[in-house]
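ARCHIVE CARD
Drawer: 12
Card no.: 0347
Subject: one protein chain, sequence and derived structure
Cross-reference: see card 0346
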Amino acid sequence: MRAVILLSGGLDSYTAGAIARSDGFALYALTVRYGQRHANEIEAARRVAAALAVDRHLVIDLDLRGIGGSALTSPDPVPRDRDLAGPEIPSTYVPARNTIFLSLALGWAEVIGARDLVIGVNALDYSGYPDCRPEFIEAFESLAALATRAGVGGTRFRVHAPLITLTKGEIIHRGLQLGLDYGLTHSCYDPAPGGVPCGRCDSCVLRARGFREAGAPDPLSLR
């Protein structure tokens, strides 16, 4: 079985990939260099892809900086020390990012004869992005059935989001059970030169919380 996985180099996509691999899928990893300020994650994605022994790792350039609308693709400051329980969608939201990325994954899946897509979205310990919710995943599966030759021919595409109902601590615990080396990953939205995590953006805060809940040290904090 072949599956196309969206691989960012973060701990979520790494864990989702490991789960898919343990389920018997041959992984085809897709990473998008979209003009993100935390470009360190591209090299992290290469490390993670090697660790997962993917069949192929494709890195696509799709510069979203021209669209703008996000602190991750512009000089706007990345929010720090934010109240993660608040209802607002933060400025780090990249407009329609998961829709765009899953569309690319869907296109590649159709070419290689894969019918399964894997994405590491989470709807519990997350920043409130609308394209990380179960409703979005279900809607995209419906779109895939309508928008592809394979779908029109009766093939069903499935979008696997194995982390979507897990806390960050549960995600890390599952990854550690699978033997993952989270020292390969990168999470920070606004790292210092050299890739040192800021420790205060949403992604850093959620990562730190997850390791605390999992009762394990973060290997990045030991360096």
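Annotation on reverse: The first helix runs from residue 11 to 22. The chain has one domain: 2-222.
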